[in-house]
Design brief:
eight-stranded parallel beta sheet, binds calcium ion, alpha/beta, single chain, globular, five-stranded antiparallel beta sheet, binds 1-O-alpha-D-glucopyranosyl-D-fructose
Amino acid sequence: MKKAWWKESVVYQVYPRSFCDSNGDGVGDLRGMESKLDYIRELGVNVIWMSPVYKSPNDDNGYDISDYRAIMDEFGTMEDFEHLLAAAHERGLKLVMDLVVNHTSDEHPWFLESRSSRDNPKRDYYIWREPVNGREPNNWGSVFSGPAWEWDETTGMYYLHCFSKKQPDLNWENPKVRDEVFDMMTWWCEKGVDGFRMDVISMISKPDGMPDAPQEPGAAYGIAMQDGCCCNGPRVHEYLREMNRRVLSQYNLMTVGETAQVNVREAKRYAGSDGSELNMVFAFEHVELDARPDGKWHLDRISLPAFKENMRKWQDELDEVAWNSLFLCNHDQPRIVSRLGDESPDSAKCIATMLHLHQGTPYVYQGEELGMTNCPFGSIENYRDVETLNAYRELTEAGLREPEELLRCIAYKSRDNARTPMQWDGTENAGFSTGTPWIMVNPNYTRINVAAQRKDPDSVFHYYKKLIALRRGGRWADAVVYGKYRLLAPEDESIYAYTRTWEDVTLLVVCNLSAGQARFAVPAGLARTDAAVVIANMEPPALTETLPLKPWQAVVWAVRGDGQD
Ligand code: TEU
Ligand code: CA
């Protein structure tokens, strides 16, 4: 397998709005972020990806950009950005930008021009259609509720917005749009940024003729966001190869595609080892195992055997031919300790071990390294997220869901769970801001915070440091990064166990992902008295053929050879 720095990296994701507020206006900002670079470095990661910091009216917290070459007012200035970039580089940290180019804000000058008249030169920068039978051109629904088409009075046509109506989709068929995007990317590369995380990049090519999408019985709209509809469209690989030729290949970057609805077959193309498109993609199947055909607003739990089978599929199929990324948390996902774990520090460490020992580049989302949990928001007034608020309004107004029942599902799944302020210390507002935070602080900050965990050698924070260090160097790093994966005991309901083999070393990873005692039958070739403990979240048992495991216990051993009889 070809080695590469981005395969050996660990990435830390910052959601700037909720990370650190330097001026007391309740909103995190670039200076605040800069003041925490030493903290990020202390964790041992080498790359930071930050959610969008460009100028934006913030309908979707910066994922609606009105100027790609300016910084959001609330976050600071371009000078602050340059200072942050230099400060990151001084510390050996790379900085990866979020690139949101499936859509812009409706306040972007391109869109203002585009909507101004049918013959404006920028008209074809976006996707405009005539009404069909007096209504929307097709049945597509927006990811954020309602139709994906918005009627525009001025010119009497509809425009497409797969997300909110303040996020019109760009028309990538237009070569001028591609020129604009590639020029803008080059501009950032010349500034010295180290890569891009590409927002819903799997959606930039729309299906020919834009036919109706399959529609669930009882649903108001068809789901446009699916493979064969708005995702993995006919020209997406052509566009990415063009981007690669014209921009990416000119610099030494890390690139990760946020590829909604990606499957293994498509991932091999997006992230293939021939290097013609991107380095890696975020796949979502494993975090969508608790969704239903009508969406995410349910209380179902992820089944462990299904989760393992999904991880196995991606590990096996991408090995040698493409590269995985590893994540459970980001700004769109509820907190993993509230989802797979029981919110205890042991469960946080166990889940982290399970994830980080896979093949792929791991991503740690701010606060994950503390075991931050979902937030008891209570009433709908405390939520801020456009997806959550729209869904609540639409589903309750249409009488499709009971408000109280839906609110319980929102408490479990809302993206806002990930967006509460970073918990720095036990002082007011968790040390995030001296003003009133834009979204509520999780009241458990008095227990769960950086200051307390830094002092406690047994904390989740210190455990993450060890886990990250394992991959970043030392005896086992090659096996952790490049080793071949093999799943053990696929049907076990409590234990996730697998091996990673590289040259003459095999790592055995055993995680009891349950709150009860468990037993694991170690395959004969692996139960070896000369095994070394690589990492463990509590006193490990001896490596014998029947392993007793405590609730949330995780152990990784190393043995010589491939561990097969
Ligand atoms: O998310 C894209 C995406 O796949 C989301 O629709 C995701 O499925 C949803 O948030 C689940 O609840 C990206 C960004 O990460 C997200 O924050 C943006 O809102 C979205 O694109 C639009 O830019
Ligand atoms: Ca601020």
